[in-house]
């Protein structure tokens, strides 16, 4: 890896060993800004982030605090007030924090094209509220976070092992040399999308358009989730669902089309001219949605078809393994043995899965694979015990097909992938494609026209472009769903909750940014100054707190509603 020459904001090289400029707005070491003291900040952080106390309870706590302060010093004309007057004071203090302040903005969108005859669908007549944050400011805030100092790579690099063979790890550890400027832009957009994809319900801009075959569809454009399941990748790149967003393989021959080539804006534009914008031919012959242009078509150094990266969770773990192979095994047993006998065999498979002994790294399934809602972790855990459980109940060819897929899966899930690993990945995929034909010969399937399984053929190229898929899997952002969506929803009054949820996340961002700033300046070391107060008697009567509606967070104060 070659060291890069530091430069100023105008791109001029700086002399060697030039120290970085101080952060903008850096304060003295005893300045806790709006919080006044460390105790006030820790209290606000405890009430809002850690305890998630409702507004009514915060009001009651501050009321008790004020009463206690007055009774503790009855001779004083001005007893010490509580740190905050009430819940609104806590919220306003957090909201006024400038660190991490990237305000949410909102605008309305609505279909403005020609309506069809008769009663149009509501999706064409409704208005939709879209919330977003400035992506550039968001990225600047991430890069400027002191927690990440020294932890970022700002240029792609190559890594070689002792055997002088390439190794692929994180996204910046990738192949170099196809046109650096284009790939740097692609890496920028992909990494930015990865940061934003956990907020994808709020980043999607809906647009409804009429297709050549008179169907209506949702089109996702703008900053959307590039790390996504295939339907979203197809919509984002304006490719017909069921076709590949990365290559021109026909939807009727996804894994055997010898004429398939990588998609690009240039290729699509040439097709438009040659076919004279015939929407039906573009749709049926090339899988191109001809009446919608991808938003990246005008980007000089980006190709939307290169931007979607691999997604282990939806394409492999839950997609090919859980949704396809596990389901097909059950269907195979039913086709061959009939429903009653198939259920008996599946029950025995469940018993074998449940009988797996305790062992580090193995999860137990007391009820077999018969649970209602699968998570990615469930699927990954089942992979480890599924193969021996079905052995003896299905033909050896079917066992070998799943074995080849599992080998492929474990290879692409490695955190470091070498050139030898890439060759092994190709070999495992070729064996899986050859042996999986048993599902067709047995009557379980008529074909394998499955975009999720087709995505497997692109993983070698994706690994070379984006590094090991482990670092880009959408399970990383799915794991934030509870913190970013479920908990903020519970803290709302459930009446038009979106603005309240965004406000909660914005407050949490500001508290996190303030904590990082105070820690960086050494202001949160140790336990702080102890505060001695008389013990308050605890009356434990086994009461359960009532669920209350929190009326303290009903608006997003600094939202800008665009016209």
TrEMBL record:
<dbReference type="InterPro" id="IPR041078">
    <property type="entry name" value="Plavaka"/>
</dbReference>
<feature type="region of interest" description="Disordered">
    <location>
        <begin position="1"/>
        <end position="30"/>
    </location>
</feature>
<dbReference type="Pfam" id="PF18759">
    <property type="entry name" value="Plavaka"/>
</dbReference>
<protein>
    <submittedName>
        <fullName>Uncharacterized protein</fullName>
    </submittedName>
</protein>
């Amino acid at each position: 890896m070659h060291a890069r020459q530091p430069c100023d904001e105008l791109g001029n090289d700086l002399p060697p060993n030039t120290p970085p400029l101080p952060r903008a707005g850096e304060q003295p070491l005893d300045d806790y800004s709006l919080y006044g003291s460390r105790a006030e900040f820790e209290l606000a952080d405890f009430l809002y982030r850690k305890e998630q106390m409702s507004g009514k309870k915060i009001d009651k706590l501050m009321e008790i605090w004020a009463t206690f302060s007055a009774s503790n010093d009855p001779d004083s004309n001005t007893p010490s007030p509580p740190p905050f007057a009430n819940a609104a004071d806590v919220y306003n203090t957090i909201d006024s924090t400038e660190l991490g302040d990237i305000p949410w903005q909102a605008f309305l969108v609505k279909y403005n094209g020609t309506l069809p005859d008769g009663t149009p669908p509501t999706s064409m007549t409704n208005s939709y509220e879209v919330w977003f944050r400035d992506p550039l400011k968001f990225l600047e805030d991430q890069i400027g976070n002191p927690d990440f100092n020294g932890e970022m790579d700002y240029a792609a690099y190559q890594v070689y092992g002792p055997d002088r063979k390439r190794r692929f790890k994180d996204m910046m550890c990738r192949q170099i040399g196809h046109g650096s400027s284009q790939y740097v832009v692609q890496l920028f957009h992909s990494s930015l999308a990865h940061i934003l994809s956990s907020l994808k319900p709020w980043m999607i801009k809906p647009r409804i358009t009429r297709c050549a075959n008179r169907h209506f569809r949702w089109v996702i454009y703008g900053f959307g989730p590039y790390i996504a399941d295939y339907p979203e990748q197809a919509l984002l790149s304006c490719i017909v669902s069921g076709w590949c967003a990365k290559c021109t393989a026909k939807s009727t021959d996804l894994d055997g089309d010898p004429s398939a080539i990588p998609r690009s804006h240039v290729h699509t534009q040439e097709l438009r001219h040659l076919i004279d914008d015939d929407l039906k031919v573009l749709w049926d012959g090339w899988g191109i949605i001809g009446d919608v242009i991808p938003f990246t078509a005008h980007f000089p150094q980006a190709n939307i078809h290169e931007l979607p990266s691999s997604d282990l969770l939806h394409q492999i773990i839950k997609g090919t393994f859980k949704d396809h192979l596990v389901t097909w095994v059950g269907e195979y047993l039913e086709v061959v043995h009939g429903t009653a006998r198939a259920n008996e065999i599946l029950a025995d498979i469940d018993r074998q899965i449940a009988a797996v002994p305790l062992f580090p790294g193995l999860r137990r399934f007391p009820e077999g694979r018969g649970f209602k809602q699968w998570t990615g972790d469930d699927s990954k855990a089942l992979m480890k015990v599924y193969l021996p459980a079905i052995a003896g109940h299905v033909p050896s060819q079917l066992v070998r097909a799943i074995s080849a897929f599992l080998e492929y899966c474990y290879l692409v899930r490695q955190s470091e992938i070498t050139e030898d690993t890439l060759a092994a990945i190709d070999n495992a995929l070729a064996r899986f494609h050859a042996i999986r034909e048993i599902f067709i010969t047995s009557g379980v399937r008529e074909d394998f026209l499955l975009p999720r399984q087709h995505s497997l053929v692109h993983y070698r190229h994706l690994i070379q472009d984006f590094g090991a898929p482990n670092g880009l899997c959408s399970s990383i952002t799915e794991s934030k769903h509870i913190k970013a969506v479920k908990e903020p929803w519970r803290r709302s009054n459930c009446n038009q909750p979106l603005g309240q949820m965004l406000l909660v996340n914005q407050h949490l961002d500001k508290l996190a940014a303030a904590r990082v700033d105070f820690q960086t300046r050494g202001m949160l070391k140790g336990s702080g100054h102890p505060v001695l107060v008389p013990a308050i008697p605890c009356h434990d009567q086994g009461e359960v707190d009532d669920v209350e509606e929190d009326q303290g967070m009903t608006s997003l104060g600094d939202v800008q509603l665009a016209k």
